Amino acid sequence: MKSSKKIYILAALFFIGGFLYLLFSSISETSLYFLNVSEALATGKKNIKRIRLFGKVGNDIKMNGDYLEFSILDKKDPSKKITTIYHGNKPDTFGVGSEVIVEGEMKNGIFFASQLMTKCPSKYKKRTQ
Fold first, then answer.
1. CA distances (Å), 45 to each of 40, 49, 106, 109, in order?
2. Domain range for residue 88?
3. What is the pLDDT of residues 46-64, one digit of tens each?
4. Considering the entire predicted model, what is its pTM?
5. Rg for the chain (alpha carbons), in Å?
6. Widest pairwise Cα distance in the chain
7. Which of the residues 24, 53, 73, 86 has the least number of beta carbons within 10 Å of its own beta carbon?
8. CB-CB contact of 106 with 51 (8 Å)
């Protein structure tokens, strides 16, 4: 085999290998677990990175300076809950019993949310005329 063909083959293999590395590393960095409270507690892990958690807001909402502290309850089993801390603006529809999705990470059994989204109940109720 000529040396110029070897160089092209090596360059192609290097390019393909680099492309595959970038593809798989970007997929693993952007992947998120989407769990309800029961599923998150069932993992048995006190620390979970990059997770979306959904449930209902408990009745223990506290505004502590620049952060919001509350519990997220499992929709099917309200006895299961995770304490959540969120730094940011409180959505208008946020309140006791609101359905929420929070994104962040769990450290030592406490969920630190970087994003907080609420479901707007009026958009999902059947309108009567």
1. 8, 10, 9, 8
2. 32-120
3. 777 888 899 999 999 898 8
4. 0.68
5. 22
6. 81
7. 24
8. yes
